[in-house]
Each structure stands twice: as C-alpha cells, then as structure tokens.
Amino acid sequence: MTDTQVREKTQVDFWFDPLCPWAWMTSRWMLEVEKVRDVEVRWHVMSLAVLNENKLEDLPERYREILGPKGFAPVRVVTAAQQKHGDEVTGKLYTALGTRIHNQDLGATREVIAAALDEVGLPAELIAYADSDEYDEVLRASHSNGISRVGEEVGTPVISVPGADGGEVAFFGPVVTPTPRGEAAARLWDGTLLVASTPGFYEIKRTRTAGPSFE
C-alpha cells in the first residue's frame, strides 16, 4: 500500500441501550479498538424495554422499573435525535448519556438526558421525546434489526461485522470489565472475531464475579 492509498476501514455495527452498564463497558472497548484496528463503529439503538416487555412479571422487582415503560426514555431521545439530526449524533449522544448514567452514577433522569443533549449541542426540546411514542416504530425496527442477528436469548450489546465469506459475523457481548485498552483491546477484538467466526460456535461463558468498573 502506497502513501497515497487509504485503507478502507471495516464497518462495525453496534446496537446499544443507554441504560445497560455492560453495553456501556463494551462500547468504550470498541472506541479503543477503533484506535488500534482499521474499524469504524456505526451506532444503532436497541431496547431492553422492548426485549423484556412480555417478560416483566418474571423479572425480579428491582429490574421491573428499569426495564418497564420508564426504560424507554433515554433510547427514545437517542432515536429522535438520530432521526432529526443524522446518524453522526448517535454515538456522541450515547457517550454523553452513558458518562452521566454510568460513570457518574446519576441515573437516567430527565435532568441527565437534558444535560447530555446540551453537551453535544442538540436542541433542548428533544427531551420531550422521552415520553413520546412518535419514533417507536423506528426504534423497534432498529431493535429487531440487531436482535434478529443473534436471537432473543441475549441482550445488549449486539455487534455485527462483515464475514470473510461475504456474509456477517454477529454476536452478543463481549461482557468485560474493566475496559481493555491499547494492545489488550486489540487482542480481545482479534480473539472475539476468531471465536465468533467459527462455524457452529455459540457460547463461551463464566460466572461474573465483579460488576462494571468504569475506570
């Protein structure tokens, strides 16, 4: 490759719900991967509220409020922002929201959402979409687009990359804490793709012994 040639980056599609701390950890890892591998992340919304809307009675009490109707607020605002201001705002707003919700432990209040909108220069009136179903059809379509690639038994995040055979490699996760950085992020990326690309491979897992560490 000559100096005048530009290597085309691999497009990585990433589906997230701003409420999920584990998706947040994985998303910060993907930003690290962008620095050390020729990849570019495209951000898409999915919704734990949609995923669990028919399962609420089976969930522990502490999850019902988070994953019930109130769980739509942040992802609805992100969807409205994307629809009105373009795909390029999606990742920026996710970062502003996630930093407040997770790193600063402020929760997904209206004040937090409003502050995130202000940080990225988006109109304050977008906060109204937290209680609006105007873009729910778009939200559900994006959710279905992501979850259909991996199945209903998982959650967020979902990652999809082009496969070597012209198809795609899609998977849930990885679930990891703290966020790997630098060469550690690169090794995890390479290994995850190697495992996920193996025909017939479905799962590798162990019990979590630590919560998200937002270092």
Q: How are the secondary structure elements laid out?
A:
Layout: E1 10-16, H1 21-36, E2 39-45, H2 48-51, H3 61-67, H4 73-85, H5 88-103, H6 110-119, H7 136-147, E3 158-162, E4 168-172, H8 183-196
Parallel strand pairs: 1-2
Antiparallel strand pairs: 1-3, 3-4
Q: What is the mean pLDDT?
A: 92
Largest sheet: 4 strands, mixed
Alpha-beta classification: alpha+beta
Shape: globular
Overall number of strands: 4
Strand content: 5-15%
| Cα gyration radius (Å) | 17 Å
Instruction: Note the run of SSEs as H and E.
Output: EHEHHHHHHEEH
Number of alpha- plus pi-helical segments = 8
The helix fraction, in percent, is 40-55%
3D architecture notes:
The protein is an alpha+beta fold and 215 residues long. 43% of the residues lie in helices and 11% in strands. The chain has 8 helices and 4 strands; from the N terminus they run E-H-E-H-H-H-H-H-H-E-E-H. It has a 4-stranded mixed beta sheet. Strand 1, helix 1 and strand 2 form a beta-alpha-beta unit. Helix 4 packs antiparallel against helix 5 and helix 5 packs across helix 6. The longest helix is centred in the N-terminal third of the chain and has 16 residues. The termini are far apart. The mean pLDDT is 92.
